[in-house]
Specification:
By secondary structure, the protein is mainly α. It contains seven helices and five strands; from the N terminus they run E-E-H-H-H-H-E-H-E-H-H-E. The strands form two sheets. A three-stranded antiparallel β-sheet has the order 2-4-3. A two-stranded antiparallel ribbon has the order 1-5. Helix 1 packs antiparallel against helix 4 and helix 6 runs antiparallel to helix 7.
Length: 247
Amino acid sequence: MVSTRSHPDSFTPPTTSPSKILTRSSQTTAREEWSHTPSNLTLIWLIISLPLVIWDAGYVMLRPHSMPGGYLHSPLWTPYGLYGTVDYMYGWKAWNEHNGFTAAQTSLNIVETIMYGYYLWIVYSYGTSTKTKGRGAPGPNTAGWFGEAKSISGHMGALATLVGLSASVMTVSKTLLYWLNEYYSRFDNIGHNDFFSLMFLWIIPNGAWIVLPTYMTYVFAQEILQGLAIASHSSSSSEGHLTYKAD
């Protein structure tokens, strides 16, 4: 007699082995917003300095007609009659010797001026006035309106900062090159001046194009570094990490 083995009416199926399921978890962090915030002090400097650079470039590029005795000299470039005797690079000495350094530097001035003009266009087209402290400037409580700022965020803010940094580096480098040219030529073009004339007609006026653009270079570079730091932090904190979850 063959016996059969009976099974219980119900049985528990074997426990399946844990399956590894790939999941991605992410961390959500509040993103810090970045914006370009040039102070009104910076903008005033550019608004004042750019017409002076254009005036200077016109004199250099229109020589000899813009020089004393030329039909374009008076009245627009009359002050260069005096300045050409202080700095021979702007006078007849450099012109008669076919010294091309002044015109070469002025060619870069024109490029630099176009860059500053584009920068100002971005600031006033896309920026909004704020009561907050402009980067690198005294606060509004100290400097009043001069310490306030324009604010430009997003792509145009980044573009303005990049253009402004590039132009200000050009200004500092070019002006230092002009000074170094005098030093290594044994002050051939300015060494004849007395102390008063040299200080008030050459050092102080030209020094402004070293001091203020150096300040701008520092401020713009700090803003770019801040933006890169924020972007790096946001990118690393928003990246998911892989985990294995057992059922």
